[in-house]
């Protein structure tokens, strides 16, 4: 976890861009499951998402992609994990929405290696809910830590190992979520 790995102005720009896309109707209700078995289930997952594209030309998204490429290089040098690209989307959880406990790597594919979440909530306050709840990898009923979705905070964790959930929030909760992958870029 880091609160200042990304420039504050970049996080603010990404929040504005997420909001602009939301107001333009570019978000869709998120699905669960791998590509071939996708389904909508708002009891499991209540967010709406807007995927980012590698060729996106918006300045903050380009800057974020550049940062992600550098970070991917650092992770590969440090851990030899063969990351090749980052798939990512903006996410917005409306009031009352959350995401029940899950692991990000799909059973059918091990391509998702490292999960990334950047929180984009400048006004988040204690009591607003929406914390990321991390559980013990070997004992998933044991809660380990709750992370408040504060502006600019960035989480990286293993997509294959770490059970986690988003607790219901009481006001809109914005983030940029992604996965560093080891397969061929889409
Ligand atoms: O927003 C978060 O804190 C986590 C989101 C998440 O777990 C996911 O999209 O897979
Ligand atoms: Fe997740």
TrEMBL record:
The keyword Oxidoreductase applies. Its cofactor is L-ascorbate. Residues 84-182 form the Fe2OG dioxygenase domain. InterPro entries: HIF_prolyl_hydroxylases (IPR051559), Oxoglu/Fe-dep_dioxygenase_dom (IPR005123), Pro_4_hyd_alph (IPR006620), Pro_4_hyd_alph_FE2OG_OXY (IPR044862). Pfam families: 2OG-FeII_Oxy_3. Keywords: Dioxygenase, Iron, Metal-binding, Oxidoreductase, Vitamin C. The keyword Iron applies. Gene3D superfamilies: q2cbj1_9rhob like domain. It comes from the Bacteria. This is 2OG-Fe(II) oxygenase. It comes from Mesopusillimonas faecipullorum.
């Amino acid at each position: 976890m880091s609160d200042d790995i990304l420039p504050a102005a970049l996080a603010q720009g990404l929040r504005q861009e997420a909001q602009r896309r939301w107001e333009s109707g570019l978000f869709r209700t998120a699905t669960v499951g791998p590509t071939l078995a996708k389904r909508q289930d708002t009891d499991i997952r209540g967010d709406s998402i807007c995927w980012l594209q590698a060729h996106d030309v918006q300045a903050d998204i380009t800057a974020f992609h550049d940062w992600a490429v550098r970070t991917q290089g650092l992770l590969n040098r440090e851990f030899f994990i063969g990351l090749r690209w980052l798939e990512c989307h903006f996410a917005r959880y409306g009031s009352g929405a959350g995401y029940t406990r899950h692991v990000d790597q799909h059973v059918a594919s091990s391509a998702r290696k490292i999960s990334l979440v950047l929180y984009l909530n400048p006004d988040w306050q204690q009591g607003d809910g929406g914390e990321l709840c991390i559980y013990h990898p070997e004992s998933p009923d044991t809660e380990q830590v709750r992370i408040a979705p504060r502006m600019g905070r960035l989480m990286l964790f293993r997509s294959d190992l770490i059970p986690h959930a988003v607790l219901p929030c009481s006001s809109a909760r914005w983030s940029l979520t992604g996965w560093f992958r080891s397969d061929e870029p889409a």
